[in-house]
Amino acid sequence: MGEMSTGSSGGSEGVAVPKAVVARLSLYCRELQHLVQQGRTTINSAQLGKRLGVTDAQVRKDLAYFGQFGYPGIGYRCGELVEQIRRILGTTESWSVVLAGVGNLGHALLRYRGFADQGFRIVAAVDVAPQKVGQEIAGVRIGHLDRLSEVMQAHDIRIAVLAVPAPQAQRVAQQLVDAGIVGILNFAPVTLTLPEDIAVVGVDLSIELEQLVFAVVKKGVRP
Amino acid sequence: MGEMSTGSSGGSEGVAVPKAVVARLSLYCRELQHLVQQGRTTINSAQLGKRLGVTDAQVRKDLAYFGQFGYPGIGYRCGELVEQIRRILGTTESWSVVLAGVGNLGHALLRYRGFADQGFRIVAAVDVAPQKVGQEIAGVRIGHLDRLSEVMQAHDIRIAVLAVPAPQAQRVAQQLVDAGIVGILNFAPVTLTLPEDIAVVGVDLSIELEQLVFAVVKKGVRP
Questions:
Q1: Which residues of B fall within a CB distance of 8 Å from A34?
Q2: Interatomic CA distance for residues A125 and A164, integer angstroms
Q3: What's the complex ipTM?
């Protein structure tokens, strides 16, 4: 994750939860959803951890931030734990999202089917290019960035995906915040400067590749 | 980052470097590159940290895993530190990449200009769809997945970007590894099971949105 703050959010009892824990929670949830699809009803912490490369102790410790979820002698009920984690993450409710920036990446994000599977719907998109405004992609009509507020009111949107070029990212992010956005998923390769109460998660595709290269080089491989 | 391993790689003196440190190194590098473009020649740890939302102490502590880089009374020389970090990350050399899966996301990744800026070139792409094989996108001809080894030999490729649908991800990943790939940037929303010596970085776009939603909900916002 690209966020730079030292990484904790409130747990169920006000305890600060490290970002790494929240990240693993999403991975547990994803794996449990696969298990449910495969017809698996229960799993214990060792089995779940093994699928994800973490110890049973780590799984239990992560979940312990939020409550007690296991059944003695059984472990976890997969379907139930999926719902419990989704409640913790806030994703039992569906979220309407606005996409800012309909370039190559924006196009792909509009068509990304994984979002709907998890309760996220891109319901609106904005851009500034005249040839784009008015187009419809994946059932979403592209509006002009300057009419963002109208778009937001029409759809009750709280979060945005930012996929504009780096030089425009800060300015457009500020416009999103001014229009009422409280959370931004930022794909532009810049760090945004926004008020403390705005949540930002950055995904920099080049940085992800850099992290991969570092891991590869450490195993002794060169290009 | 989606990797589940407890997150450290070798530092300059064999000390295990936490993944969070390596992630911040990339962010420092990115910010320093912006500063260089803006004509800034030096910066101290407090100023650099402020731009990224971390303390001066954190910046110095992160860099200390890899050596001493500051100049007394000056701080860091921006251009020099960019190069030093790129050497640490392994990105002073350019890396050839193969893209597996040329769907919506794959298309966008083929056209993503940020990769080239950081020394990554997608030089080959593979898919299985007959209507895609033979097409050329962004100067890259799409080959068939089954001819991967020929592609790899022609281009001296070590790392791959995996952008196939979830049900095919594990199988294609194994094919990539069998053909000699040692590092995979995985966009499929599944955890891959691969030998320990294969590096994997996962980017799950839905999980990134989930992390954002969790942060937003913790600030008291509902959809």
A1: 190
A2: 12
A3: 0.92
Q: What is the mean pLDDT of each run of 10 residues along chain B (223 residues)?
A: 43 74 96 96 97 96 96 96 96 95 95 90 96 95 94 92 97 97 97 95 95 92 87
**What dotted CATH number matches B19-87?**
1.10.10.10
Of B4, B58, B159, the CB nearest to A212: B159
**Among the partner residues A89, A108, A212, nearest to B105 by beta-carbon distance:** A108
The pTM of this model reads 0.91
d(C-alpha B215, C-alpha A35), whole Å = 27
E strand spans, chain A: 8-10, 16-18, 42-43, 76-77, 95-100, 120-127, 136-137, 140-144, 159-162, 183-186, 199-202
Task: For chain B, give every residue range classified as CATH 1.10.10.10.
Answer: 19-87
Q: Kindly indicate whether the domain formed by B95-207 is annotated with CATH number 3.30.930.10.
A: no
- A122: phi then psi, degrees, rounded to nearest 5: -80, 110
**Using the beta-carbon criterion (under 8 Å), do A109 and B205 form an inter-chain contact?**
yes
